[in-house]
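On clarity, I found the account of how folds are encoded harder to follow than it need be. For illustration, here is how one protein appears when written out as sequence plus structure tokens:

:::
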Amino acid sequence: MSGNSPLALAAGLTDQTRQLCIGLENGVAAIFDQVTPTTAALLHGWFGEEACAIRSLNFHPGQKQAILNTITAHEIYAAADLQSLYRQAAPAALSTGTRLAEVSQSKHRHPKYCLKMAAGTGKTWVLQALLIWQLLNKNAALAEGVDDARFTRHFLIVTPGLIAYDRLLDAFCGKQTEGGRDFATSDIAQYAELFVPENHREAVFHFVRGNVCDKTEIGLKTTGNGMIAIADWHLLREAGTEAFGETKLETPGAAPDPQAVVNALLPVMPGKAAGNSLDVLDKRFARGDVLDFLAGLPELMVFNHAALHIHDLKRESETTEVEWQPSLTRIAENKDRRFMQVDFSATPYNTVGSGKNKRKVYFPHIIADFDLKTALRQGLVKSPVLDKRKKIGALPLEFKAERDENGNPILSAGQRVMLRAGLQKLRQLEAGFARLDPNRHPKMLVICEDAAVLPRVVNFFRAEGLAEMDIIAIDSGKKVELGEQDWARVRERLFEVDRHATPRIIVSVSMLREGFDVNNICVIVPLRSSQAPVLLEQSIGRGLRLMWREPEFADSKRENRERIASGREPDSLIDILWIVEHPAFAPFYAEWLQEGLAGTVGEERHTASGVGDMISVNLREGFEAFDFAIPFILHEAEAWLEHRELAIGKLPPFSALSPAQLKAMLGKGDAFVSRDLQSSALFGDYRIDGAVIKVTGYNDFLSRLTRRLAQALSRPLPKGSRIAAPYQQVNTAELAGWLESYIRERLFGRPFEPFDGENWRLLLLQPVVDHITRVMAPALLEAAQTHAGSTGEVHYRRLSELNQWPMRESCSLAVDKCIYPRLPYAARNGDLEKALIEWANLDDSVRAFCKISATRHDFAKRRYVREDGVFAFYAPDFLLRTGQAVYLVETQAQAQISSPNAQRKLTAAAAWCERINALPGKERSHLTWHYAPLGESLFYEWRHKGERLAELCDFARLSAPVLHDSQNRLKSEL
């Protein structure tokens, strides 16, 4: 992107960040050398290939890039202000136009970033990830006695309105209940597996639960070691205004407003509703001190959740600060780089000019650009489809509400047709979705042009036969009209629409433009007169969030996008946003239609099922005969784990580079070009910045490496596998001793003295750390010994726990010997799976079989040690039962079988089967368990010869000798 582009900073920073992150998923990216150990651990957990594989939810590419760009700008570049960031990421942009003068203004003299993310693409998750990144790094720095100005534990989250404000409180504190808020329903708690490393969860949960302040508590609530203040932008706008009016302009020649004088002299007055309540008066008085409180904090990170109220208003050649930007500027005073601002917006621009001269003026501090077009192409939001029925196309261009003889607004004929079209589509979706999943409830959103039209829309739907509970009307005066208690019930009903059948229709004016983050809006009828692109995109954005996220729907949605891109109508309405739009707004969608990002549907498609060929498959009658009971062995009360003494002398040394070569790499070489190694005195030791593990000395290095290995070996199984075999219990003192012995006696093949000439610094280099991890993790596992005091307890998980499985009828096969009447196979590259299902169904030696869903049968996941020594998980493809045995069958392309990690999966699965086979026969139905990896060529060779599938599995299974050979082969590799 050229230097004069309005998004040059985002483009330059993204390019540089991507270079730093090459190999990020595999843990070998250059970025790991330039961030703190805390950030490195977060990056591994958020974006590591194996970590992502075991979760059902992960950050999508747009969220990932926004997080990485922010970390690069703030932690690696450490830009103290916006101009400094431009000079590092997009220097050419400063030499074009007025950009240098613009970014040099005082309001940009602190770290300031804007993340441009399309509506519906999860800005709140990025906000929470960045907050956790700051919090954990600040905790780590303080624990080491370091004052790192880049990080903070003081946060202010500003929302664009009440709906978004309530949504953020839900995200951090949990949903409201009669007894308060249920933290277990918060985003932080529900998605902790994604957001927070396990060893930090308790600290993060404690901080969030004790330090969140709502807008009435800012400056009043006592918090221990930080703050997460959440407020809507009006609070700071009001706090930042002067006593005489809403602006700071001085007009000495004008008479002051009498009411303003009274307000200035008597700032605290009893309200009509609350009387002389001291609690109310105290809160109102304290509210005026919010700005002073925030300005007085030594450091602060501000998140603007939807930065629509902080921009500059540009008219002709004049630029005016609007809304609460003056308050923000005052808060930032005297904080320098200890004030950090992160703005989120789907539309970070102002529209200036008119007609042919209309153009967008983007914010200058945009560092990441994930636009709606990209989100549409990647299938991260619903695909918009426009109604092109003749009745709507024939409407007159004027479609505003009309007036009766008394001047009262009434719905026009055009508006009534549009509402009926939306209602018809809603009913169609309700019928189709109910057949697929009765717990999915599509909703319709109607956006009115003004508050006077809203009750007319409600009355129209009632006349169409809808009950009162089917409709909910929301406008900005609703809270005042209802009062706090009644509004809480309305708000709860509004935010829970995804989970309940009613309300079916939501009618709003403009209150739901931002922050109304629900998934089930499938039909939008925009009855408004404004044609401003910002308002149009915000309105449509309320329905863009995905409703069907499970992997079973991915193929159907992908094919829909392909059909739309080629100008054809979609086959189903799974994650389709149906827009009953007036032709007057066709220019807004013209670009989307031309690029194949939006589609159209005519009258002939209005009788379609809405779900295409998606079906819901339930358990068959008599499924018990074909069910699989997977045994899990418990030894918590009856067993303990010990490690035999490690044979340090038999562990392989590091031979890739000599100590002399490693010394030459400190500050040199491809992997270390960007590293700035600086030594500074710290408690009589040395601190090395930019290393793989940032430490204050050799003892600190040993302690951290011990902790990392212990945490890895002690990692519990994933959610859903709580009754699986107990995980490793590591004695950290013993482990530290073994590490110390290995480093001094064996690591370099001869005695090594860490304190001789600061030799310990060589241990910080990536190749050395990787080698130590690869050697020690398998050695510790091999040395583990379990001692049982009594017979272990066995629990069972059954495949039939998944009693309903959605799948595509066209990509599934009818089967007889399975708990389900049909089994799915992948639409792409699923030929081997399909062939195995067909063969198993015809082979009379197979008594029962079933495909494993990696996401829905999550308890079937098995753990193994990767090549790099890190624990990971995988699930077999099928379970197959004969008269004598149960086989864990994995179908593999021929090239995958010999990969190092495939061999490790093989060893782990076979070991697990051996453990099951050690149980008494009655606890495994007198069946022997085997792991049978089936390579593609072997599979087709046996099938072509007319052999039985059961005999192939028995031939391919791993026996104990094979298992031991595999283990020895892995040892020899080390």
Summary: The first strand starts at residue 112 and ends at 117.
